[in-house]
Amino acid sequence: MVEVSGVTKVYPGEPPVTALRDVSFKIYPGELVGIVGPSGSGKTTMLHLMGTLDQPTSGRVIIDGHDASVLPDRQLSALRAGRVGFVFQQFFLAEHQCVIDNVADGMLYAGAPLKMRRSAAAGALTRVGLRDKLHVLPTKLSGGQRQRVAIARALVGRPSIVLADEPTGNLDSATGTSVLALLAELNASGATIVVITHDLHVASFTQRTIEILDGVIVRDAPSRS
Amino acid sequence: MNRALVPARLRVLDVMRLSSVGIRTRKLRAGLSALGIALGVGSIVAVLGLSASSQAGLLAEINKLGTNLLTVTNGQTIFGQAAELPITAPGMLGRIGPVTDVQYTGDVPGANAFKNPFIPSSNTNALTVAASSLGLPRVLGTSLASGVYLNAATATEPVAVLGAAAAQRLGVDRVFAGERIWVGNMWFYLAGVLKPAPLAPEIDASVLVGFQAAQKYLGFDGHPSEIYLRAATDQVSAVQAVLAATANPEQPSQVDVSQPSDALVAEADAKAALNSLFLGLGAVSLIVGAVGVANIMVISVLERRSEIGLRRALGATKGQVRLQFMAEALLLSLLGGALGVGAGAVSTAVYASTKGWQTVVPPLAWAGGFGAAIVIGAIAGLMPALRAARLSPTQALWSV
Q1: ipTM score assigned to the predicted complex
Q2: Residues of B with CB below 8 A from A44's CB?
Q3: What is the pTM of this model?
């Protein structure tokens, strides 16, 4: 499903910064994986590379059989549109659009007509428990609800993989826990989810934890529970 | 699994929705930058519309006065002196088939008109004293502002009628019984004052007396100097061709023939030429509007980095981001353009109605206004859109 093999990422500059050093792992369909590390460990770079938002200096990132490290920008965009869903710490919701249209925009670049996008969005919002908030503006929602909207947007196109970047970073711990519980629940119903976080607490919700430190994987094992 | 990856095309409806995102979220700012375009387009449309309307008004006036008036005047001899028209000329011209009406005046040389005998003789007010036939107002398409015109009785007596400008210069605003002016060396009683005659402006500055009176009191020789005639409208050019030879068979070259409505049409065209200055001013404000739109779009791209990053993460290609911002700039200037065309047309209509003209907004004006708005939107939007598309998704997402 997602295969990272021998990936090194060096950011040019004086001196050059090596964010990741020869990292390899695989994520299989249906997994819920936590990538955990302190800030500066290279986990955000990992998210960029797995989400095809950036390309590795060397090594390969293969998503659904497509080698993202050799594809041109247009094809990477198409790959993201169809197969990768993102959840961000800051939610990134459009404030002037009601919840259902925010979620529907998750499929905008996949080419579905508006009607179809909206009905898929309604379905996704039902899955995250916001069925009664379809026509509310995001500004009227609590932080936890907003993150649920963002999760629905990531899921709406039924991507091969959902990448969640610090999904609980802007939430209090109780709300954060409920969001993690939601991700676990969605995983149980078939979604492949990678949660990238510095919060070791997340590990209690994932089946597998990859710990990164200074650009190297220091541990890749089933979560201790 | 290894299907080729082809980005989906955005639907037209989706592009339209995307293009209005910035405008819906920042209404005041979008409104102000559209206003810049609107002012430019509006002033261009108004300038073109007003000139077309005033031209239409002038042409309508000309049509009302009739284009079938022809003027025959005495020309010059080959030695450069004023030639004379034969006394028989009006009668001969009247016998041309399609000619329906002939009237004439004769300048009385050496005669001047004054309010009273105490005015210094050098203050002539540039007035002409002329003998006139009795149906002159009818053939010129004018009428009397007050009083009556010369008739068979008054034409033999010291009685005068004033042209519109002549009345003004002599300080006559109404005619009352016994009112007199000093013409030549004697009192002439005032019979009436004419309204302006646009087809024969020389009449406006004239003091008109009867032919017999002019001969009797002012030493006039009886030769007409201007002959005004109306011809059947479809025969005007044919009549014009034979006028000189008919008026003065011996010296046709000493006769000038003209069609006064031609001069007015030329005047209407000349008015349009003045517009280039105003059009230039409109173009300048249009450019200022374009700079405004470009400015707004640049700021918008900076402010909306995270939105751009999100869209890239959702799968938008560079081209789709570029398209969104281009479309937004185009929409802004189209809104401005529509507003401007509307405002220009309305101001034209309002001004034209106060002047009693027909409202004319030429297609060149509104099509050109829209066209200019589109071109300007494209130019103003291009650079910001390219910048938006060049943003790398990671930079865009994590710079906030």
Answers
A1: 0.93
A2: 398
A3: 0.73
